Amino acid sequence: MDRREFIKSSLIGAAGVAAAPQLMAEDVYAGTLVSGTKSHDGKAGAVSTGVEKHLEVSSYVKESAHRIPVVATADVVVVGGGAAGVAAAVSAARQGSSVLMIEKTNYLGGLWTGGLVLPVLATHGKGRNVPWDKAVKGICSEICDTLLEKGWAVNPLNPRVDPEATKYLLDKMIAEAGVKILYNATAAGVTMSGSRIESILVDCNTGRLAVKCRMVVDASGDGMVFHWAGDPYEARRYHMTVMGRVGGCPATNTALPVHEMRIESSGTREAMDGLDVFKVSEMQQKGRIALWNKVEKMKQQEGYENAYLMEVAPTTGVRVTRVLDSLHNVTLEDSMEWVSYPDVIGMSGVCDPFMYKGRKITRQERPVWQIPYRSLIPRETRNLLVAGRCFGYDLGITWDAREISTCMVTGQAAGIAASLAVNARCAAKDVDITALQKALTAAGVRLNF
Ligand SMILES: Cc1cc2nc3c(=O)[nH]c(=O)nc-3n(C[C@H](O)[C@H](O)[C@H](O)COP(=O)(O)OP(=O)(O)OC[C@H]3O[C@@H](n4cnc5c(N)ncnc54)[C@H](O)[C@@H]3O)c2cc1C
C-alpha cells in the first residue's frame, strides 16, 4: 500500500467528513533551492550562521564569551534520535564504541513516531533481474520485523507502526546496545579544533554543557552539525504537514495496528522554507486548529460520536531543510539505472510514482538504488558523518531519499563507519571501505543488486 492508499485507508471511516487526502507525491514539485552552499558569518563553529538566508535580520547582539563545562566524553556522539540517529547509535555501540546520543525531545523516532508519519516506505523496488526486490535489510528490517512480530505494526511490505510501541522498542534497543542518551537536551553548537569537531555544545535545564567527541554523526534531520562546522550544503524548500491522530473511532481500520485510531493531516501545498521559524510556527498553529475543527466535524457523523483528537504530532512535519553537499551526492539519474558504487553502503527502494524525463514512473518500474559512502561525508570536517534526511542527494531524488528506511540505511552505515574511524584513528573519508562493507554485510545490510 502506498502513501496515497495509506492516507485514504486511515480516513475510510471518516469518508465524506474529512477533506480529500492532500499532499500526494504527484502534487509535489521537487524542492526549490532557497539558500546557497556556504553557511556563513565566517567562522566554523559559530552557534548560529546563515540566518539571513531565511529571516529578515534587523541587527545583531553579542553573546559574551564564557566557559562551558565538559560533562561527558564519547567515542561517537550522535546528534538526533530519529530513525537515522537510532540506527547510527545502536550500530556504533554494537561495534564496541562508547556512544552518547543527544535528543531535544524525550522520545526516539523523530518524525517517524513524533511526527506520526507511520508507514516505513522505500523498502522495495524493481530489481535488476527480478520484478520486485527487497532493497532495505539490516537494522531497518530488524526493527520492522520485531514490530510486525509483536503486532505493533501491520503490512510487512511497508510496515505501518504503532508510534508508542515503536518509541518503546527503540528505547529498549539503545539501552541494550549500551548507548547513553541525553533527552531534553538540544545540541546548540560545536567547538572546532582545526577541521575536527572537538565538542558538541548542549543546552538543557542544567545550563549549557559540552560533550567531547572523537567522531560525530549528524542525524539531526536539519543538518545542524554540518551547518555549525561550516561544511557546504543546500537548504531546500518543501511542503509541510501537521499530522494528528484521532481516537474513539469505530475499530474497523485494519490499515493501522491500533484499529480505533485514524491519522489526519493538515498542511501546505506549496513549498515552504523549513528554516523560517516564524512561518513554521504559524503553520503549526494553523494545523492544530484545522485538525481540531476536522475532528469536531467528524463527531457529527454516525459512528464517530466518540471520536476525539488524541494527539497533534509533537514533531512538526517539516520534510527537508539542509541537505549536505557531500563528496558524492546521490543523483536521481544514477538511481534510475542501477548504477553500482565501489563504496556502496546500502540500498533503497521506491516511495511513490513520479515524473521522470516526461514519463510517469510507477512503483513497479522504479529501480532499487545504491547509496555510496561518500554521500555521508562532508567536504571539510574530518570527524563528521551525516545520516538521515540531510545526507547528500540531489534535488531530483529528494522525495525518495528521505524515507524512513533510507534514513536507517544511512544511519547504520554512519554508525559503523564512525566506530571504524575511532578504532583506526582516521578521518571519516579515510575509513577502510572493505572493512566497512564487511561489517555492514555481517550486520545483515544488503549491498548489491
Ligand atoms: C509529513 C511527513 C510525511 C512523511 N511520510 C512518510 C511516509 O509515509 N513514509 C516514510 O518512510 N517517510 C515519510 N516521511 C519522511 C520521513 O518521515 C523522514 O524523512 C524521516 O523520518 C527522517 O528521519 P531522520 O532520522 O533523518 O530525521 P528526524 O526524524 O527529523 O529526526 C531528527 C531527530 O533529531 C532531533 N534533533 C533535531 N535537532 C536537534 C538538536 N539541535 N539537538 C538534539 N536533537 C535534535 C529531533 O528531535 C529528531 O528526533 C514523511 C515526512 C513528513 C514530514
Description:
- The chain is of the alpha+beta class.
- The protein folds into two domains: 107 residues, no CATH class; 289 residues, FAD/NAD(P)-binding domain, CATH 3.50.50.
- The protein contains ten helices and 23 strands.
- Strands 2, 3, 8, 9, 10, 11 and 23 form a seven-stranded mixed beta sheet that branches.
- Strand 10 and strand 11 form a beta hairpin.
- Helix 2 packs parallel to helix 4, helix 2 packs parallel to helix 9 and helix 9 packs across helix 10.
- The chain is globular and about 65 Å long.
- The N terminus is likely disordered.
- The structure holds flavin-adenine dinucleotide.
Report the CATH architecture of the largest domain: 3-Layer(bba) Sandwich
- Major sheet summary line: 7 strands, mixed
**Rg from C-alpha positions?**
21 Å
Number of E-type strands = 23
* Unreliable runs: 1-33, 35-48
**Ends distance:** 24 Å
Question: Which compounds are bound in this model?
Answer: flavin-adenine dinucleotide
Number of helical segments?
A: 10
**What shape does the CA trace take?**
globular
Class derived from helix and strand content: alpha+beta
CATH topology term of the largest domain = FAD/NAD(P)-binding domain
Structural domains: how many: 2
- CATH level-1 class of the largest domain: Alpha Beta
Q: Taking all residues together, what is the mean pLDDT?
A: 89
Instruction: Estimate what percentage of residues fall within beta strands.
Output: 15-25%
